[in-house]
Design a protein that fits this description.
3-stranded antiparallel β-sheet, mainly alpha, about 260 residues
Length: about 260
């Protein structure tokens, strides 16, 4: 299988295409963690605090997400504000998908975890069969980008199910659950940097586990004290993390350090 080379040469160079997703930098993981945390708290705020309920909230947010993804696909390149807008929205929708299955349809968290694990595995299998790679450094076509966003949706839905399963059904609580998944992510990072764990495998595992990590700490901050949280509320928690996201995205837009050009020659 041919390995695609990543370069930062000028876009006008022959055989170079803009990657449609960002480089994996420290800023990438900061925004990812903030986005998943905000996805949890924002979904709760819209559905519960505004009184719209899960069904109406899901319809509204899915419609907004569809518009954001159409915008993202039309760019045919990585544009920080458009890309991260889609990530924040898909985080909210992924949370709502799991919440609907559990709260509205009565599907158990164990079943949700199993189903989304299978769906994610099938998506990875179809992606690899069609493209020969699961690397996010080679998202240079509409088909690859479609696989990418479907994968992202399932990682958020799976992460929500796993986080709720551990913190609520297994009774670990929000803080212990966050610490557990934080330890898993640290272990994977050590495996990648020190033991030679495959970079693609490490990336996708960390991507999945940052969802329950962020959601756990989001719930810890926003939920009432009598439910095991710190009682800051969904509004304050969502606004804090939204502020961090906006600041880092603005920095990325100015510096352009997360842009990639892909050579297919």
């Amino acid at each position: 299988m041919k390995t695609d080379a990543v370069t930062t040469q000028n876009e006008s160079s022959p055989g170079l295409y803009p990657n449609r997703v960002p480089q994996v930098t420290a800023g990438f993981w900061v925004i990812k963690l903030m986005a998943v945390t905000m996805g949890e708290t924002a979904a709760d705020y819209i559905a519960v605090n505004l009184g719209l309920g899960l069904t109406v909230t899901s319809i509204i947010m899915s419609t907004v997400l569809a518009g954001a993804l159409l915008l993202q696909f039309s760019m045919k390149r990585y544009v920080p504000w458009a890309y991260w807008l889609a990530v924040v929205l898909i985080s909210i929708v992924g949370t709502l998908v799991t919440d609907n299955l559990v709260d509205n349809l009565g599907v158990s968290l164990v079943t949700c975890t199993a189903v989304f694990t299978v769906l994610l595995a099938l998506t990875f299998g179809a992606w690899f069969r069609q493209e020969g790679t699961l690397s996010i450094h080679t998202i240079i076509s509409t088909r690859r980008e479609a696989f990418y966003w479907i994968t992202i949706l399932f990682t958020f839905a799976l992460g929500t199910a796993v986080g709720d399963l551990v913190s609520e059904q297994f009774g670990l609580g929000y803080l212990a659950t966050g610490m557990l998944f934080g330890a898993i992510i640290i272990s994977l990072s050590i495996g990648y940097f020190m033991i030679g764990l495959d970079s693609i495998l490490a990336f996708w595992l960390v991507y999945i586990f940052t969802r329950p990590l962020g959601a756990s700490f989001g719930d810890l901050l926003s939920q009432p004290v009598n439910y095991g949280g710190l009682g800051f509320g969904t509004i304050a928690t969502s606004l804090i993390f939204l502020g961090v996201i906006i600041a880092v995205v603005m920095w990325m837009s100015v510096t352009g350090k997360d842009q990639e050009m892909i050579s297919t020659q």
